[in-house]
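TASK: fixed-backbone design
INPUT:
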């Protein structure tokens, strides 16, 4: 999608030719797309890769379409298993494409059920090691007393019941991508070891004496405001800075309702249902089907997936 850079509207008159500021007639530019909700995010300190419209601040430029690009914003785009037409998701797609080609740690921020796991897999597929393993580690689904062993591994005899050596998630993801889901749930006492692994690219198993080198791309996700977690003392500031180097806010479905007619057929296809009512162009009919109402208190893609089996064949 061809895009042009225009100076941020928060600096009135910046970047306009002198004639335009003296009142000469120029074709007005198209209104900017609706920005992604910034309720969960803020600009991280230090250098970062992000679209400036994701949050306010003294940013010099903003990437957004002009009149010449307005048609492309309406184009349905695909990124892995993602499909979208909304301007909000177009921005997310652009940012993901850019970040995927680097090895920087990426953090996805958004409500539960907005598809952060799908975006993480798309980053892996477009990254530098797409043929490597993609390992998911859910920080909210592992018992706290087992989390260190499951993440870093353990040696035989490291603790009672450790009858065999166990490779942790970092080692299993070696040569690929490790997706740390719900990173805000990581216990405080384990956060220094995660930070050390990210900085040194080495891990040491529980009960081990040797550091093992790893080549892993890390993508994290959270539905929490990590700044508040830092302020409350539940999340280390240095780890937050490390994770905030590249932040991708993921909008809820209620903020991109125009994507629903394209998401429903894809989700039905994943469920093996084909289309909903007929074999002829089901997408718009599915989107407005009264059996699939979008509840604005949640409006999550995962919520819609859970409702779809109710559709009559």
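OUTPUT:
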């Amino acid at each position: 999608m061809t895009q042009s850079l225009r100076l941020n509207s928060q600096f009135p008159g910046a970047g306009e030719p002198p004639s335009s500021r003296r009142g000469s007639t120029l074709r007005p530019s198209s209104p900017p797309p609706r920005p992604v909700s910034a309720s969960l995010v803020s600009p991280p300190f230090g250098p970062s890769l992000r679209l400036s419209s994701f949050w306010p601040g003294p940013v010099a430029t903003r990437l957004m379409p002009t009149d010449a690009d307005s048609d492309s914003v309406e184009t349905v785009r695909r990124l892995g298993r993602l499909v979208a037409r909304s301007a909000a998701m177009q921005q997310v797609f652009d940012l993901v494409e850019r970040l995927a080609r680097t090895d920087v740690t990426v953090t996805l921020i958004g409500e539960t059920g907005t598809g952060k796991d799908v975006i993480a897999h798309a980053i892996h597929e477009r990254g530098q090691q797409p043929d490597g393993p993609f390992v998911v580690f859910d920080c909210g689904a592992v018992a706290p007393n087992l989390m260190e062993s499951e993440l870093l591994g353990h040696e035989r005899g490291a603790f009672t019941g450790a009858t065999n050596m166990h490779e942790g998630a970092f080692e299993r993801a070696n040569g690929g991508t490790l997706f740390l889901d719900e990173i805000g749930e990581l216990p405080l006492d384990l956060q220094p070891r995660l930070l050390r692994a990210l900085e040194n690219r080495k891990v040491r198993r529980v009960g081990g004496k040797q550091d093992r080198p790893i080549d892993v791309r890390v993508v994290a996700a959270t539905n929490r405001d990590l700044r508040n977690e830092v302020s409350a003392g539940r999340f280390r500031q240095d780890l937050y800075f490390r994770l905030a180097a590249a932040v991708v806010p993921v909008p809820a479905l209620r903020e991109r309702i125009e994507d629903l007619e394209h998401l429903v057929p894809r989700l039905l296809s994943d469920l093996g249902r084909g289309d909903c009512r007929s074999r002829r162009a089901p997408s718009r009919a599915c989107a407005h089907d009264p059996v699939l109402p979008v509840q604005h208190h949640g409006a999550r893609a995962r919520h819609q997936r859970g409702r779809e089996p109710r559709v009559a064949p």
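COMMENT: DSSP finds twelve helices and 13 strands in the chain.
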